[in-house]
Amino acid sequence: MKIPLLRGRDFTERDDERAPKVAVVNEAFVKRYLADRDPIGRRIGWSPDSQIADIEIVGVAKDAKYSSLRQETPPTVYQPFRQAEISAIHFEVRTAVNPKALIADVRRAVASLDRNIPLYDVKTQAEQVEE
Description:
Blueprint: E1 5-8, E2 22-26, H1 27-34, E3 43-44, E4 55-61, E5 77-78, H2 103-113, H3 125-130
Parallel strand pairs: 2-4
Antiparallel strand pairs: 1-4, 2-5, 3-4
């Protein structure tokens, strides 16, 4: 998506399921949860019932709009695909050709990573903006 990285580092191929968990957060996350303190090296976790903070913040990305152009940018945490502990993953594909023509290729690419990942709700950016 070419969202600029403002501080720290981006993910690398070494950030897989065997590596220590890492995350890149956005500016809204830093403002809301860290009171503008330096986020690099801080640790976060997902479970409110637990004190486990096993994910290290390694970078800060510029804020970007996601589900709505009209809403404020939400605090956001990005994780490497192989480390993500979430039920759904959203990704974008940039192309110079008709995006609808690439759906079958995208399905094959996702299946080559993991055949158990369902690909659904495929939309063009224009369709998303229209919604």
